[in-house]
Amino acid sequence: MRGMVGRACTAGLVIGVLVTGLTACTGDAGGDGKAEACTNGTYAWSRVQRTEKLTEMSDPISFEKRTASYSARLKPVDDEVYRPTVTGAPRGIGAAAVITELGTHLSVEEPLAGPSEKEPTELGHYFEAATGDLKGDYYSWGYIKMVTADFAYTCGNGEPVKGQVLTWEGTGSGFMPCSEELPEGVGARAAARALCPAGSRAARAAD
Question: What is the pTM of this model?
Fold first, then answer.
């Protein structure tokens, strides 16, 4: 960890502008007072959480007559921006390696988002549907499947290095008619509640 002397340091998990404090310690310090790098330690994971969050929504969508296709820019629901972040990464081990270890622990099918990745709200996200038979009221939304976890990294007889990870295992979007059954997911429920007419099948299910 950069700037660490002895065993004391601080770290924070950043989500947008939210900062949460976390105490961490290094392994044994050498004679010059600097912690030695250790790259063959073991991880202990705790407080692993996987949550889906609504990130984007369309305006209300209504087709009075049959329409072949639809295209619109999804708009962020708030100012919060998520970025893959590791706080308290052990000295000599980068954030990407820690996230990879978390993915291995969770046995994910696809790699978790690394430090260089951006979520769709940062890049600008368009949604397109081309079914050839659109009519009535619809809703469209974007979501992110967040993963957060605490870790303790132990190497040899040194004190464990403690930290946190914020990443995601996927992002996506949906487009559904308000007249049909509500699909699974927090994002779909929130979007249907906000965009579908009161009394529609999806709006009733979202309440």
Answer: 0.73
